[in-house]
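Reference record
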Amino acid sequence: MATAIQAQTSGFGISLKAYDPKAQFNENVDKMAFGISTSYFHRPEASRFTYGGEFGVAMYSSDEYDIQFRGQTIGIAEEDCFFTLHGFVRYDMVKKRSFSLYSEARVGVTTFFSTTDALRENTGFNGEFKFHGTAFNMGAGVGLMVNPAALFDKEREASGVWLDFAINGHSGSNANYRMHPEGQGTFSLADGKHESLTHYFGYRVGVIFGI
């Protein structure tokens, strides 16, 4: 008995992202986080479903200050950040040659960390990298993919380059994280620690190649 093998297509994307903390997370982190992400996409031929994964990193707080170290004054750069790792499934609600309007479900984790480093080299100062906690996330949202080649030339076939715009709401579990304390002075990465649920909205603008 012959078995049909369904053709599939794959692609990858790169995006600029913004994250807007909500609820108690916003009370402790009252700033937008900005970062970058990369994604892998996989879709069966002629299917309205696409699935894949996304890895990103974003920073929501930074500061620079001076400390006394080994008889010298050195500048220190400090950042509070997080990694994100999500799997997702998309469904094309409206699919045309030049655009696709889709819904999206996501599941994954957000891991919080902080770093310090000297602003100039050869000071002898060893930077610090510290993990704080990891939150489990579930999210959903909507997005729009636009194919510029087909959009501006009605006779042209869609190319393998798409612009991607999306918004997602994420429900995050309880986690430890850090927000650089307000005010003047030298701080330790042990300062400014918080714990709460980690809900946020995510906004994405990117480019997708290959699907």
Q: What stands out?
A: Helices lie at 23-28, 148-152. The CA atoms of residues 148 and 162 lie 7 Å apart. The beta strands are 8-21, 33-44, 49-69, 72-95, 99-118, 128-146, 161-172, 175-178, 193-196, 200-209.
